[in-house]
Amino acid sequence: MSTPEQREIIIRRGRADTIFRGVIASGAMLSLVVLALIAGFLLFRGLEVFKDFGFSFLTGTQWDAGSGDASAPAHFGIAAMLIGSIVTAVIALIVAVPFAIAVSLFLEYYAPQFIRKPLTAILDLVAAIPSVIYGIWGYAILMPKAAGWAKSLNSWFDWIWIFKVPAPIFDRSPFIAGLLLALMVLPITTSVAREVYSQAPRDQIDAAYGLGGTKWGGIRTVVMPFGRSGLVGGAMLGLGRALGETIAVYLVLNLVFKVNFQILASAGGNVASLIATRFGEATPYELKALMAAGLVLFLVTLAVNAAATYIVSRSRTSA
Amino acid sequence: MTEILSPVSAPAPQKPWRHRRRDWRQAAIMTSMSLFGAWLIVVTTGLAGVLGAYVAFAIVFPIVAFLASLPYGQKTGQDRMATAVICLAFSTAFIPWVSILFTVMNKGRHAFYSGFLTTDMLVNSADDPLNVGGISHAIVGTLILISIASLIAIPLGVIAAIYIVEVKGRFAGYVRFFTQAMSGVPSIVAGLFIYTTIVVVVFNRFNALAGGLALAILMLPTVARTSEEVLKLVPDDLRAASYAMGASQFSTVFRIVLPTIRSGLITASILGVARVAGETAPLLLTSQYFVKFTTNITSGPIAALPTYIFANLGVGSANSVTRAWGGSAVLLSIVFILFILARLLGGRNIGSKR
Known about the structure:
Chain A has helices at residues 15-28, 30-53, 56-59, 79-110, 113-127, 131-156, 174-198, 202-210, 215-226, 228-244, 247-252, 271-279, 284-317, and strands spanning 63-64, 75-76. Chain A is mainly α. Chain A has a two-stranded antiparallel sheet. In chain A, helix 2 packs across helix 13 (284-317) and helix 8 packs antiparallel against helix 9. The radius of gyration of chain A is 25 Å and the shape is flat. Chain B folds into two domains: 23-110, no CATH class; 136-347, MetI-like fold (Orthogonal Bundle). Chain B has helices spanning 21-44, 49-68, 74-108, 136-167, 172-182, 187-203, 208-232, 236-244, 249-260, 262-277, 281-286, 305-315, 318-347.
């Protein structure tokens, strides 16, 4: 008996379905369109500034609207702000990632069964705390404390260059902004890490136990290597969040137009905060420069997020 | 006469994992040793206060745990130390959040009086005593902004999810990817974009519609992502049954699939609302802040809770900062209530038999 040939499946769609699929498809494309529009409009508005300053818009550190005539021309360069954004975001990740690993391991492997669900729900809940509330708390509660910590760090590790300060003022430093951002990115990084850690192959963990290994042995040899790429993705999602954060940073960071790597000093930079600070009193020309700065910030965060999404989704499918 | 069987001496059940008295004693000794070590550190170094003592304890405890379990082998020591570090890191991570909750509620409490929720700030300055003025304008403004954003973002988010899961179109992968990438758009950039387009070109003034649009950009990815997750939970049997009855895809989606996940979609919407309810930066660029109670969405600025907090914080006097804390307490309560609502609705098993 010969096996019957597989029949060709023909889908005939009615008119209603064709219209339906068309409408849904065009609606779904809107997110792409909006992203393109954002990039397009910011480029369109900021083009004049890009033309006038060229590459020095990215490498210059001066931000001066000038007086409007030839005697004091405007200078716009976002290097100090861009580097400042990266510095605070990196500080945030250095603080947040170890905690994210510990919290997610605790939730997946150490916490008693009955408190896992409530704790996960609480973690989702704190992820929804508005940034302005992080900001007001950071300003009123965290900053006085963190300034004290910064002072101690400075007195102990004075010999490390990045912990030096030009003047003994520790308020509104990149260090404090980084700590606040760490708190803000911790929920998202943790939730991604928790998800990949929970997918670690159970049989391999059991095998580690069977060989007489301890719980930590199983985590170190099975769970952590398994979750590494997912953790990187989660950290990058956090990085994107930290780079784009505006109001919280605005409230705890002193913007100074000078590249500064001394993280305890009261001088930092942040593109998003720059836009929020200068927007109110900007001249038309400066507004264009802010649009250009917004475009740079948009492209940087988009690249970081796209890479993070790619890594996370790949670590999901490989699981 | 029946013979009573002599009871078989069954072995008493052993529970080797149960904590015995010796374990408790050991734990007590370890903890007191760590407390002593922490006390030594607090006395001899710059660490001070409750927080300093906690940090000192967090440093000492894992080391003591390691040393105490060394007699059982190095591996056990490492295991105990890792357990101690992970548990301590977990509790440390929660300190700031508890502090935020406590501070906001504690400081916000002072701003409340009988009229706080029902008056606006038109005739008062932020500096006035705390028994005049209120946040009615900000609450209503936030509601208006959120409604506009929801009207735009929820349908579009659900449509994106339907495209990815139901239609499975050619660009489904791209739509998914870019919707995710959109969640990373910095909020201030969304504000800037709406400012250059809607505020400058269309209306030539700050207004609530622009604010709502900016929030919609930020809300869309959350709604799309959550809707996608719940759509995937719908069992394929339902779709197959619907098609077998001769239904078109259109009626399958709208009469079978979407009603099945109604509660999931509500959860998605609420999560989206909670995501944007506290956004400040885009509103500063689009709807600004206004002290008067208003419901006009196209002509002129409008207040919102986040911008109310920001504006009052900016004034900087004792009373205005207390007002900002009061606004924060209200905003945080709203976000949390929305979130818990979403949890309660989403907690029901989606698509399962009743």
